[in-house]
């Protein structure tokens, strides 16, 4: 039995869960809130050289998969290990890396901007996805958690606006690829490219709980600003495609 350490609603963690679920790999998930995951991830990596900081994550980011052998600390590496058939096409591999690198960090910052501007969103995510003690601790330590997120992820007005512009540009590129009516981004089957686009768009489109591995807020429960953005992103050709991937491919075997 594998053990998957996650930030429950993280789109990077969803990428790993999707690959594991696709092949029914048995695992137990340990879900944490942002900042509260650090103790678990540091303990999991103690005494190893696993984990590597990059442009969008620290060495102690989630997901981390524990089981046979060394910990696997990157969502793409987890997906490649357990769903290798998704990575056989070089173009799919390129697009997977592109969307993960150029979109995922920006949609995450956009989501956290709204969560910190309207703490009720983050408290709702905690209530629906982690234990009651963690949700209580978030309320008690919210100024600290908010400070960590703002500092580490550069969550401020300028960062939000830059990320929104960048995300829209990348999503427009994906929309151009899809403009010829293709069913998948590469070839005639689901690949790592589709997995990456769908998951990296998740913070902007908020897939419903039956299509996602955690509970995300839905547009009707959001205030005007975030609701308008989710509706905009869902209506975009790339957003509609991502929603279809979640609906049709997330649990294709029921």
Summarize the topology.
Elements: E1 2-7, H1 11-22, E2 27-32, H2 38-45, E3 64-66, H3 75-82, H4 90-102, H5 104-117, H6 119-129, H7 132-140, H8 142-153, H9 157-178, H10 192-205, H11 224-235, H12 237-249
Parallel strand pairs: 1-2
Antiparallel strand pairs: 1-3
Helix pairs in contact: 1-3, 1-10, 4-10, 5-6, 5-9, 5-10, 9-12, 10-12
Description:
- There is one protein chain.
- Helix content is 58%, strand content 6%.
- It is mainly α.
- It has two domains: 2-84, Glutaredoxin (3-Layer(aba) Sandwich); 87-249, Glutathione S-transferase Yfyf (Class Pi), Chain A, domain 2.
- The mean pLDDT is 92.
Tell me briefly what this model is.
With 254 residues, the protein is mainly alpha-helical. 58% of the residues lie in helices and 6% in strands. The chain has helices at 11-22, 38-45, 75-82, 90-102, 104-117, 119-129, 132-140, 142-153, 157-178, 192-205, 224-235, 237-249, and strands at 2-7, 27-32, 64-66.
The number of strands is: 3
Count of DSSP-assigned helices: 12
Query: Main β-sheet, in a few words?
Result: 3 strands, mixed
Q: Measure the end-to-end span.
A: 21 Å
**Shape, per Cα inertia axes:** globular
- Read across the widest sheet, the strand sequence of neighbours is 2-1-3
How large, in whole angstroms, is the Cα Rg?
17 Å
- Binned strand content: 5-15%
Judged by helices, strands and strand pairing, the structural class is: mainly alpha
Report helical residue fraction. Answer: 55-70%
């Amino acid at each position: 039995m594998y053990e998957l350490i996650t930030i429950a609603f993280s789109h990077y963690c969803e990428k790993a869960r999707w690959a594991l679920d696709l092949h029914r790999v048995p695992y137990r998930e340990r879900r944490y809130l942002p900042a509260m995951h650090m103790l678990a991830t540091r303990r999991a990596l103690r005494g190893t050289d696993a984990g590597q900081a990059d442009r969008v994550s620290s060495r102690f980011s989630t997901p981390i998969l524990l089981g046979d052998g060394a910990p696997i600390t990157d969502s793409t590496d987890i997906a490649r290990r357990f769903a290798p058939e998704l990575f056989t096409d070089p173009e799919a591999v390129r697009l997977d890396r592109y969307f993960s690198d150029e979109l995922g960090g920006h949609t995450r910052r956009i989501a956290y901007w709204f969560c910190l501007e309207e703490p009720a969103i983050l408290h709702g995510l905690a209530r629906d996805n982690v234990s009651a003690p963690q949700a209580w601790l978030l309320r008690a330590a919210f100024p600290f958690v908010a400070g960590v997120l703002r500092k580490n992820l550069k969550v401020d007005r300028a960062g939000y606006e830059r990320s929104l512009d960048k995300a829209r540009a990348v999503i427009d590129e994906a929309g151009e690829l899809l403009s010829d009516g293709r069913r998948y981004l590469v070839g005639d089957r689901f690949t790592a490219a589709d997995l990456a686009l769908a998951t990296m768009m998740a913070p902007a489109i908020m897939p419903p709980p039956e299509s996602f591995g955690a509970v995300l807020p839905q547009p009707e429960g959001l205030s005007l600003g975030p609701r308008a953005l989710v509706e905009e992103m869902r209506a975009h050709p790339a957003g509609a495609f991502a929603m279809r991937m979640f609906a049709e491919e997330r649990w294709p075997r029921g």
